[in-house]
Amino acid sequence: MISANRLRSIAFWSHDLNEREIEQARRGIVEKAYPKGAFICHRGDNFEAWTGIVSGLVRFCMTSASGKTATLAGLRTGSWFGEGTVLKNELRQYDLVAVRDSQLALMNRATFMWLFENSVGFNRFLVRQLNERLGQFIALLEYDRTLDATTRVARSIAWLFNPVLYPVAETQIEVSQEEIGLLSGVSRQVANSSLKALEAKGLVRLEHNGLTVLNLDRLRNFGE
Predict the structure, then answer these.
(1) Are both 67 and 11 inside the same structural domain?
(2) Last residue in a domain, options 129, 158, 185
(3) Of 97, 129, 161, which closes a domain?
(4) Each residue of 190-220: pLDDT tens digit?
(5) Which residue from 42, 63, 66, 99 has the least number of CB within 10 angstroms?
(6) If you compute the radius of gyration of the chain from its CA atoms, what whole number of angstroms results?
(7) Dihedral (CA of 189, 191, 194, 196) sign
(8) Same structural domain for residues 53 and 119?
(9) Distance between CA atoms of 45 and 145, rounded to whole angstroms?
(10) How far is CA 143 from CA 17, 44, 115, 135, 206, in A?
C-alpha cells in the first residue's frame, strides 16, 4: 500500500475523493518499476490492475502474427489507464511496453470496483476519462488513414499534453526523437525531419533531451 499523501501526489483524480475513499484507494495500490523496453503486459495476459504512470513513458501497441508492431497511443507521467479492461474483467487486448525506465502505480481490481460502486467523485472522473480516450482513438483512425507524417507527429505530441488525461500545467517533456517516432508510428529519421519542420513553424522548441511545446492549439489542429 502507499500513504495518503503519496496517493494525492501521484493521482490527480484522488483530489475528488473523500477521506474514506482515499483510505480505501491507498490501501489497494502498490508501486513497481519497469526498465526501458520491458513488457508490462502482453496481449492476452490477465493483468487486472488499473495503472498509473508515476514517472516514465509507456506505449499501447499490438503485434501482428507476422511480427509487425503498431503503436496505438503513448502515455506519460500522470496518466491512468486500463479502466475499460478492469470494468469488463477481461484479458488485455494490447501490449504495454515501457518506452523508458518507468515507475507505475498498480491498483488491484477489488479496490477499483469498490471506488466504482461507492464514489461519486471517482465515477465522474471515469466518465471524463473514458470520453477523452474514445476521442483519442477515433483521432488515431484519422491519423493512420488520412494524415502525412509531420501531421501525425504534431498531433501525437499534442495528445501527450491533453489537459483531461494529463491535468498538469507544463509545456516541456523529456522524450527522444526515437520515442516520438514510436508513438507516432514513423521512423526515427522521419520523426527528426518532422520535428524540425514543426520547430521551424514555431510550434515546438527542440531541447537536448526533449522538447517544449510553444503552441498547443496549433499542434492539435496541425494539417487542417
Answers:
(1) yes
(2) 129
(3) 129
(4) 999 999 999 999 999 998 888 999 998 898 8
(5) 66
(6) 18
(7) negative
(8) yes
(9) 29
(10) 36, 26, 35, 12, 23
Task: Identify which of 53, 60, 50 has the alpha carbon closest to the alpha carbon of residue 103.
Answer: 53
**Mean pLDDT across the stretch 157-178?**
81
Write the CB contacts of 188 (distance below 8 Å, at least 6 apart in sequence).
177, 178, 181
User: Model pTM?
Assistant: 0.77
pLDDT above 80 for 139? no
139 within some domain: no
Same domain, 204 and 167: yes
Measured from the Cβ of residue 33, the count of other Cβ atoms closer than 10 Å reads 13
With a cut of 90, say whether residue 26 has pLDDT above it: yes
Q: Which domain holds residue 78?
A: 4-129
User: Confidence band (pLDDT; 50, 70, 90) for 141?
Assistant: low
Residue with cell 461507492: 118
Number of domains observed in the structure of the chain: 2
pLDDT digits (tens, 9 = 90+) for 100-110: 899 999 999 99
Q: Which amino acid is residue 173, in one-letter code?
A: I
Note whether 223 and 147 are within 8 A (CB): yes
